[in-house]
Write a structure and sequence with these properties.
The complex is a heterodimer of chains A (about 400) and B (about 90). Chain A is of the alpha+beta class. In chain A, about 30% of the residues lie in helices and about 25% in strands. A four-stranded mixed beta sheet of chain B has the order 2-1-3-4. The chains are: A alpha+beta (about 400), B alpha+beta (about 90).
């Protein structure tokens, strides 16, 4: 070991896909749907944002159908226009309005960095390159609907564009809940407006040129909500695709099966250039012993469920192992990291995960027999299983590049 | 004033077996002990005692270097008192 193993199919640029979403005030379900998938083998990324007619669960169904069909069609290389046609002819018809309708923006990023975008009735996407707007040429196509009765009166025009992605590019797209935020208010009688949204995004990037897709999407959505006087008048969704230098994270968890490998662990820890998490008391002890650093446990802001975090020079975070990682997997599964009122060690790990692109887990496989004691009040999972689950979630749900190494 | 250092193991086994409560020790210290002994409480990432059954059961707490097994807030307080009265 010693050297950091390369990430599979890794390049100098990493594609970060993130979105932020708020549902219409008093609605129980989102009417906008954002989906994305990444093929771990070749790195192809397909993303869809769909806004269903109306709001709430009915809109959610229309949007889910649209976004799901769209991503599946693109993934199986069905021509875009054909796909758009099938989607429009498949959508269920709203009983009240008698039409079937859901907008979409589809983004397909090929492994060779060719980006293809198909848009139907969402606000046009914004492409930002070197802090200026770039407008690729768009091709307009009218899509014929089979059933004219249930089609909206307006003709369906699909816009297609294509460009070569460069490192640093940001592709921003959103539902009309963003551009129409605040409509009817004194300050924004016609809503926040496309140009204002554009300027807001540019301002954010000028202030913080490295702003992550996740933070920028959150900022856009929160600004729209503020303009809506904190009661969203429509579903508000913003998706961002950002290609940039990858941020690496190393997670050392568990003691090596053979103590002879302790030194390898510490060498890897010292040579890794990204951020570092040490998860596990014994693991932290090994590193402290090998490197001569001190660990201090913070006994402030205690959480009765999650052991406290510690501080050690060279590590960005030191936590307990099994309980913390179990909670991390749970948070990742539920996707409720922002709602966690209590900032504990597990929430801090999740934050670090989400702010990274490539995560390397180095998992010690030695088992602590005390954890298998049947008198334990809680069942303690085996580390390997928790990490496997976490890695899968990070890869599939959060589109991170993940590697696991056992030691 | 006598000095007493209490180090609580915050490792997995200790935490689930009760160390999470012992970490609140400061709130439960009797006034007379607080006034008569200089007590320092800290956490330790792992004392590495639970792996060997001969050491007894988790949670483990060190009081002035002496290992308490199956510790509770009251056994830790007892131990501090014993040191204070030595």
């Amino acid at each position: 070991m010693g050297e950091l193993p390369p990430f599979a199919g890794s390049k100098d640029t990493f594609i970060e896909v993130a979105h932020a979403q708020l549902r219409k005030h008093k609605q129980g379900a989102e009417g906008d749907v954002f989906l994305s998938q990444k093929n771990p083998a070749d790195g192809r990324v397909i993303t869809a944002l769909s806004d269903g007619l109306g709001s709430g669960i009915k809109a959610g169904v229309l949007a889910t159908l649209t976004a799901t069909m769209a991503t599946k069609f693109i993934a199986s290389d069905i021509p875009i226009k054909k796909a758009a046609q099938i989607i429009m002819n498949t959508l269920p018809v709203c009983k009240e309005r008698g039409i079937s309708y859901a907008t979409f923006t589809l983004v397909d990023i090929e492994p060779n960095s060719t980006v293809r975008v198909i848009e139907y009735d969402n606000p046009p996407y914004i492409l930002i390159r070197k802090q200026t707007f770039v407008e690729p040429i768009k091709e307009f196509t009218v899509i014929e609907r089979k059933n004219k009765k249930t089609a909206p009166k307006k003709e369906a025009v699909v816009q297609y564009s294509q460009y070569e992605a460069l490192p640093g590019d940001r592709l921003v797209f959103f539902s009309d809940g963003v551009t129409q935020a605040g409509m009817g208010s004194v300050h924004y009688p016609f809503g926040w407006g496309y140009n204002n949204v554009q300027n807001y995004i540019l301002e954010k990037i000028e202030k913080n040129p490295e702003i992550s897709a996740r933070d920028l999407a959150k900022a856009v959505v929160n600004q729209a909500l503020q303009i809506d006087s904190f009661k969203a008048k429509d579903d508000i969704t913003c998706g961002i695709i950002y290609s940039r230098k990858p941020r690496d994270l190393l997670v050392l968890t568990g003691p090596p099966l053979y103590p002879e490998r302790d030194a390898d662990l510490s060498r890897l820890f010292a040579s890794f250039s990204g951020k570092k998490i040490v998860s596990g008391g014994t693991t932290a002890n090994i590193l402290a012993r090998e490197t001569g650093k001190k660990i201090s446990v913070c006994l402030k802001n205690l959480d009765p469920k999650i052991p406290p975090e510690s501080v050690m020079e060279g590590a960005d975070l030191v936590t307990e192992g099994i309980i913390t990682m179990g909670s991390v997997a749970e948070i990742l599964e539920q996707g409720k990291y922002s709602d966690s009122a209590k900032v504990n060690a597990a929430v801090r790990v999740v934050e670090l995960f989400l702010d990274s692109d490539r995560i390397l887990f180095v998992v010690g496989t030695k088992i602590n027999e005390a954890h298998q004691d049947p008198n334990m009040p809680v069942e303690l999972e085996i580390r390997r299983n928790i990490i496997k689950k976490t890695a899968n979630l990070l890869q599939e749900k959060y589109l991170k590049e993940v590697k696991i190494q056992y030691i | 004033m006598k000095k007493v250092k209490v180090s609580i193991c915050t490792g997995t086994a200790c935490f689930v077996m009760g160390a999470s409560e012992i970490m609140m020790l400061e709130d439960s210290l009797p006034e007379d002990l607080k006034n008569s002994v200089d007590i320092e409480i800290d956490g330790v990432s792992c004392l590495e005692k639970c792996g060997n059954a001969q050491n007894g059961k988790a949670p483990f707490v060190l009081v002035n270097g002496e290992v308490l097994s199956a510790a509770t807030i009251s056994t830790v307080i007892e131990k501090i008192r014993a040191i204070a009265e030595e």
